[in-house]
Write a structure and sequence with these properties.
Layout lengths: L9 H14 L5 E7 L22 H10 L3 E2 L6 E3 L3 H9 L15 E9 L6 E5 L2 H4 L1
Amino acid sequence: MDLPVVLRDNEIAKTTLYAVKEIMTVEDPAIIIKWNFAGFNNVPAVPGFRNGDLNQSKQNIVAHFKEYGGIDVQNLNNVFVFKKNNDLGEAENNLPNWSRHQNDIPDVCVSAVVVHKMTSSGQIDIAPFNYAFNR
């Protein structure tokens, strides 16, 4: 199996392994995100903010995941562990519309996956999660 794009990034992969080994329990899901900074820089006069709006930043999405119970692993803003599948599902369902795909603007996410720790021995299951941002 080929690794998803997000897990080909060595730093994100290390953070993910740390989360699986040290934070996640058997039932915990996590979302792993490789951000696309071009998606937050489509207005050159206001870099870091999508559509030039100061309420449309990566940090706003990070705060959103935390509001829904996500733990920002090592405060690196790319691995978020949830205690329940429902919490992750609600976080995804309620992502602000501005964070989703917009025609003629780069998406805010290059690649994302959901990781489930399947067994107490640490086997994990990985599923695509790109649709969360790109639909």
